[in-house]
Amino acid sequence: MLGVSCMEAQVIIGGDDYAAGSLLSLNSTMRGGLQLSNVKLTIVTEIPLDFPGITQSNQNTDQTKSNFRGSVVFNTNSSFGSGKGIYAWDGEKWDYIGGGIGIPTGRVAYRNSIYGAITGWVDFMSYNLGATPMSIEQQMAYPNISQSSETFTEATATEFTKLFGDLYQWGRKTDGHEKVWSTTSSTRVPVDNFDNVGHGNFITGSDWLAGINNKLGRWGSVDPDTPQSTINSKGVNDPCPDGFRVPSLSDWQSILNGVGDKNGILGGTDNHNGVNRWKWIDSPNAGWLIYPPKPGVTIPSKDEDYEDTPTLFLPRVMYRATSGNFSTNGYGCYWSSTVYDANNQSYRLRISHGGNYNADHSVGSHRGSGFSVRCVAESRIPISGN
Q: Does 166 reside within a domain?
């Protein structure tokens, strides 16, 4: 039943009663739900052409963007933004609301140069790959987790894995090796089997592949002619869920000072002169809190330019050495998808107890190491004109 009250401009579906103050009332005694339009979103700053009245000539006009402000849809494209789920159009871009694949994300700023205005916004998963999906607030409330164990079983690793996640060898799929309780093997895999190891053992040595081939599309481009320095695509072995990938070196650089920064070092515990503010904490679990700039701030440089609440937390997680043993020497590492050199090494972001941060050309690690992975969204949100 559809009822309309003209005096109060209220629409009632399913009965005669309506909730005070509402414009639309759905009778709660009816069975069923409200089905949103199923739309395949592809570009975060555009209204799709199959929306009513949208043509190529008016798709990107200010009037069109304004007309559709407040529109809510269910996105069916798993490779868009935070994946399938409910999105709302805010007049400039599609914002993820939820109800999809259940991946909490944190949004930070990025820029494509060392200096100048921010280029746009990018979403990272709020937690490490393999950890229990949780928001940054839940992570901050999590009790201190010991990282002193040299051996794990599946039973003893439960709390560690919930917060810190898995430890991946560079370029490997999710096959069981990433679990901290996985057994070791010294038998390296032939290059031809790089996408099908055939077991879940942690393979000891500088690389889990036999032979050197920097152009295999393990975690980056599958195009053998693509220079590694330009790779920001998802490789065939990438373990991140749909809509996300392993960050490249330039991804890490872009959320610190900016792409091209080859120093990439944070020497103190509170750094507020980059594109985002990075603040080190020691408890309950040590790591970096990342605060994005406030709306309207294009070149942040001081405390008041950044939000009061962080959107990301990168905990310092012990790593698994190429021997298969665990290291608790005071720092942890996050992989990038970018090859470092021909000596079985790739770039990684290293975070240390004293607040030292590195993501530059001098920092590579053997691909046989087991490091954390923090996935980044494949789609970014550029700011118009930057």
A: yes
| 151 is a domain residue | yes
Task: Decide: 345 and 366 in contact? Cβ < 8 Å.
Answer: yes
Q: What is the pLDDT of residues 112-125, one digit of tens each?
A: 888 889 999 999 99
Model confidence at 4: pLDDT above 70: no
Separation between Cα atoms, residue 252 and residue 44, nearest integer Å? 21
- HSE toward the beta carbon, residue 73, CA cutoff 13 A: 22
* DSSP H or E stretch at residue 250: helix 249-254
- pLDDT tens for each residue of 277-301: 988 888 888 888 999 999 999 999 8
Query: Total domain count for the chain?
Result: 1
Other Cβ atoms within 10 Å of 184 Cβ, number:
13
Q: For the residues of 133-181, what is the DSSP string, one character each?
A: P--HHHHHTSPP-----S---TTTTHHHHHHH---EETT--SSSTTSTT
Which residues constitute the domain of residue 114? Answer: 107-382
185 vs 220: CA distance, rounded Å: 25
SS3 27: coil
Residue-wise pLDDT tens digits, 237-247: 999 998 899 99
**Tokens representing 35?**
């089905």
- Cα 280 to Cα 278: distance, rounded to the nearest angstrom: 7
- CA within 13 Å, CB half, 229: 6
